[in-house]
């Protein structure tokens, strides 16, 4: 019995196929969201099915989550990212009690019960600062590949102070820092510290360990360490952090299958 989870995020689409009985992941596919979310999501899903040799009719239940979840016309139901990320993290790191998720255009901090259900959460979705989109802007302005931002930060000797947490103003501030002679490595280190400080502000001092870090931004080296310093706690990056939401959606789909 096969189930599927689709995380139609603001920047990327993630899809997971799962054996509903064994909870074994059968396949994963990731693709860019683009400007036509419905088409991009369908393309990623069809590529996943083709790669696994599975037909659409073979999938018993599909859960969609993420920014464009309501555009996944073939999904059996939709569930919020908060619930799906909590389920995905609990599956991969059962001991986690605090979850930091930073995606393309928002960031979240979840506090979990022992069974993985959400006790409470805080979310920043009103500004792209401190998200993947913010880091893409930094990468472009500094001409440093996104995958190398973390490595660049390790070369910093004097992290820059980034006071603006609006993407538009932060971009202007970064241009000014570079014009005044600031090293790219110092700017990157300052940006990572600023992102971590924003998450720490959401936490409001209520962090229960262990802390799990997930979402696409968790793939950028150095962000976990910066978060740990800001939160005053060790932060562990969840395995395959970009697909946690899709995995959680697939696990919830499997639960629906079992209930039928």
Brief overview:
The chain is of the alpha/beta class.
Explain what you see.
- With 260 residues, the chain is an alpha/beta fold.
- The protein has 2 domains: 2-87 and 243-259, 2-Layer Sandwich (Nucleotidyltransferase, domain 5), CATH 3.30.420; 95-237, ATPase, nucleotide binding domain (Nucleotidyltransferase, domain 5), CATH 3.30.420.
- Helix content is 39%, strand content 22%.
- The strands form 2 sheets. It has a 5-stranded mixed beta sheet with strand order 3-2-1-4-5. A 5-stranded mixed beta sheet has the order 8-7-6-9-10, sandwiched between helices.
- β7 and β8 (118-124) form a beta hairpin.
- α2 packs across α8 (244-259).
- It is globular, with a radius of gyration of 19 Å.
- The mean pLDDT is 89.
Break the fold down into its secondary structure elements and pairings.
Elements: E1 2-8, E2 12-19, E3 25-32, H1 37-52, E4 59-65, E5 77-78, H2 81-92, E6 98-102, E7 107-112, E8 118-124, H3 132-142, H4 149-153, H5 167-179, H6 184-203, E9 211-214, H7 223-231, E10 235-237, H8 244-259
Parallel strand pairs: 1-4, 4-5, 6-9, 9-10
Antiparallel strand pairs: 1-2, 2-3, 6-7, 7-8
């Amino acid at each position: 019995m096969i189930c599927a989870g689709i995380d139609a995020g603001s920047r990327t689409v993630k899809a997971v196929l799962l054996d509903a009985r064994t909870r074994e992941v059968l396949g994963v596919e990731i693709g860019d969201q683009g400007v036509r979310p419905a088409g991009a999501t369908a393309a990623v899903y069809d590529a996943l099915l083709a790669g696994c040799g599975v037909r659409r009719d073979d999938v018993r239940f599909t859960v969609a989550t993420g920014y464009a979840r309501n555009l996944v016309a073939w999904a059996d139901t939709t569930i919020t990212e908060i619930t799906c990320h909590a389920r995905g993290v609990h599956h991969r790191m059962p001991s986690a009690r605090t979850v930091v998720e930073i995606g393309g255009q928002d960031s979240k901090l979840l506090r979990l019960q022992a069974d993985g259900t959400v006790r409470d959460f805080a979310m920043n979705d009103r500004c792209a600062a401190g998200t993947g989109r913010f880091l893409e802007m930094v990468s472009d302005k500094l001409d440093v590949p996104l995958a190398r931002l973390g490595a660049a930060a390790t070369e910093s000797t004097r992290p820059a102070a980034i006071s603006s947490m609006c993407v538009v103003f932060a971009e202007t501030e970064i241009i000014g820092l570079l014009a005044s002679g600031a090293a790219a490595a110092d700017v990157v280190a300052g940006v990572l510290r600023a992102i971590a400080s924003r998450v720490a502000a959401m936490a409001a001092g209520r962090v229960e360990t262990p802390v799990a870090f997930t979402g696409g931004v968790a793939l950028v080296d150095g962000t976990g360490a910066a978060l740990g310093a800001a939160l005053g706690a060790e932060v562990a990056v969840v395995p395959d952090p970009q697909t946690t939401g899709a995995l959680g959606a697939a696990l919830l789909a499997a639960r629906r299958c079992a209930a039928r």
